[in-house]
Amino acid sequence: MSDLDVPRFVKWAGGKHQLLNQFEPLFPKKFNRYFEPFVGGGAVAFYILQKFKPKEVFLSDINEELINAFNIIKTDVERLIVELKQHKEYHSADARGYFYEIRKVAPKDLPELERAARFIYLNRTCFNGLYRVNSSGQFNVPIGSYKNPDVIQEEKLKKISKLLKNVTIIVMSFEKVLNLAKKDDFIYFDPPYYPLKRGKSFTTYTKDNFLEKEQKLLADVFKKLDQRGCSVMLSNSDMEFVKELYPDYDISIVKARRLINSQANGRGEINEIVVRNY
After folding, report:
1. What sections of 42-128 are H helices per DSSP?
2. What letter would DSSP give residue 257?
């Protein structure tokens, strides 16, 4: 793998930091603009920004809390760090009480800066760094058992802020990339994975599900981008249902470690697929 320092500011289910060395030979050699419609923790985006330095980059997700955090890091990182230092101080004094006090606050009642700090604080201190909401859209992950969680991450946040300087970051559903992408652009899709066992996998990053209907729509968007002359790459679980959606494309296997499982022995290696049209 290259010696690029790819920063992380959130723990994210399905984050791609661990796969970058396997992805490196799979990326297109040349492209114009870069789009990532399920940006998640941003590992691939931060790699692309440093390795390829595209002139235009569009990062999006339907998770409003995540996108707000990206934008605050981009535009107001110094004040964000001050807010996180306050969270760290209060957490150190009364971890459990403070965590649940902050968790019950409705993010839409907060200014954008405080909302981003709350999001990062909860992510760094909750169980396994999960982002999960209930049917009402309320964050409901319990506190994690960390002795000294890295809440502030000052140097990482400053580096990410510089990387995002000229990046467009918006709340947007993945299919709307069809309104923006053009020939010779590169689009990477990292959707909530199709579950290996129905009802057993974590796929809910918002109050909406991402199952057969959504996977079929995504495959249709993939094909339309292919027909437009874009380079398209997609990650997903190694399931026949998924592979049957992409019969005309290159499918590679990568080995990923399961990082989110209540049992440590359930965190072994697992096959994932990478679909490409180039």
Report:
1. 43-51, 64-75, 77-93, 95-103, 112-125
2. E
